[in-house]
Amino acid sequence: MTTGNSHPQTDIRLVEAEARTWFMLRGERDLKADEQSAYDAWMQQAVNRKAYQRLQLIDRSLAALAAGSEGARLRQPGGLAGLLDRLNNYFGISPVSGFAFACTLMLAVGVVYLAPWQGEPAAQAYTSELAQVRTITLDDGSRITLGGDTAIESDFSNERRGVKLLRGQAFFDIAKDPSRPFFVSARGAEIRVVGTRFDVNAGSKLNPEVKVTVEEGVVDVASRDRESAGAVEAPKVRLTAGQQVRVSEQQLSRVNTVDATRVAGWRQGKFSYRDAPLSEIVADANRYRKNRIVIGTRELENLRVTTAFNADQADTLVAMLEQSLPVRVFKEPDGRVVIWPGAVAD
């Protein structure tokens, strides 16, 4: 993949192709360290950012279409006809390059929202921007608060209600419906409730633990091995208010006790950690700051840290860490901040 400005700025078709590749890759999984560096470098170019932001805008517009009455019409046979024309008119896409751009986007993204018209309700996707806290209300009255840079997908049927936490962190306030239990899946974890309030952090590539914390009610948490689903009985645990469990590599941690009145403090912009791995803190902070923090060595990823900060302090977090931990912080020319081992100053 081209990662810098090696293409002529006027070759918009190449720019759009690169934007689609990054957009689809970031939607599928967390980027690897070298991929994240390449993506950050690619986004430094204004023409690249514009193409990527156009994809994000169209993606959000498609999700909004699918959620409303227009989406219901589009899911009928033949209902997709003319949608590209409306997109072209709305976004001002040029006839030369814009048609291929919008057409490929429809195939890659739009069908996800609009294709399931044959009697099945369409899955609905919701996202939040970097540093944005957003609350949505689902069809059943359940409310979900998305933390920064978070993505979910809801899929309801007559028998069950389901949400996939694709990345980030979300707080769930679930409407009671004993006839239709509510399921949340995130990486290798599956959560089952009827009506309750709880928080789920999907973890990250560096720290792939899923953390489930209950504020109110009862929550069943199971560890699912996606490669052998159904082959063996999955380990599971039942949590009540003020309890927390972590799911990692198809294993459940011991149940920890937390202050139920402080669950999901990030909704008020407050982050608090007690004996947490540095990788978890960095992953959370990166969803609230423009320039990413990178951990330079693997041995630092599991360094245990107790700290607290506000969302508006995310940019100064690295300085706080450098003062209290055996680390050194370096700022790269591209804006990234890299944490390396070092000695604590006397």
UniProtKB/TrEMBL annotation:
Matching InterPro entries: FecR (IPR006860), Ferrdict_sens_TM (IPR012373)
Membrane-traversing stretches: 90-115
Residue ranges annotated for the FecR protein domain, each copy included: 129-219
Signal peptide (UniProt feature, chain positions): none
Any Pfam family hit: FecR
Keywords: Membrane, Transmembrane, Transmembrane helix
UniProt protein name: DUF4974 domain-containing protein
